[in-house]
Specification:
The protein has 13 helices and no strands. With about 290 residues, it is mainly alpha-helical. Helix 5 runs parallel beside helix 11. It is globular and about 75 Å long. The chain starts with a helix and ends in a 5-residue tail after the last helix.
Length: about 290
Amino acid sequence: MRTKKGIGRKKTYLAALLPFLVLVCMFELLPVAITILRSFLKEGGGFQITLENYVNIFAKPLYRSAITNSLIVSIVSSVIGLLVAFLAGKAAYEKGGKTKRIFMSILNMVSNFSGVPLAFSFIILFGNAGVVTILGQTLGIQALADFPLYTIWGLLLTYIYFQIPLSTLLMIPAFESIRKEWKEAVAIMGGTNRTFWMKVGIPVLGPSILGTFSTLFANAIAAYATAYALLMNNFSILPIRIAEQFKGDIVQRPEFGSALSVILMLLMVLSIAITQNLTKKTGGVKR
């Protein structure tokens, strides 16, 4: 009797899970499989397997620079965002109470401000006729008057802006694993606050820090709307180069675009794999 009930429950669970599996296959697994397959097809139609698309990516400076620029922007913005998030998370953890709740509410609101609205906001502030630019010209502050918004520095600034709230939201819960008893033990042994964080706090938070960095890297390297709204096609990064292969006004190159997409996916997977490997080596929090 119990066996029949167990089988019935399993069938119910499978039936409830089936719509989710269908959606995953249709909107995640199938598109990825098609993209990978198409990346090995010769341009111009036909079912001819070739590595020409990948050879062209690394043979042409435009696409090599797109990969390099994407890596630079993603790594730098992730590192800076993570450093700010660590300090902000530490402050929220130590302060606690109502201040922490207000801080979390602000972060949740700000973290949703990205994409095209974020780019337009920076254009309004730091563009050629932006508020801050005009203010800098009026006050004679050259750094503000000539702020390089439409360069890699401006792009970095916008990326850092949307990286900080996300990384802070991810880091704050990690600080809950820090026990007050550990601080007391370090203090009893003559250690300072800096000693605690260097010898205990940061090593304990190591897996969370690595996981947050991996998330930030994936978030930055795949970002498209902010970069396109700010710089259009004037700056070469992977998402922009991928998009122009599929929506070009004159020529569309879906096979080549698929190869670029696979490169982007491989960079993201490589980041996750490295992070997981380092996390295993550093170990988690032992309670």
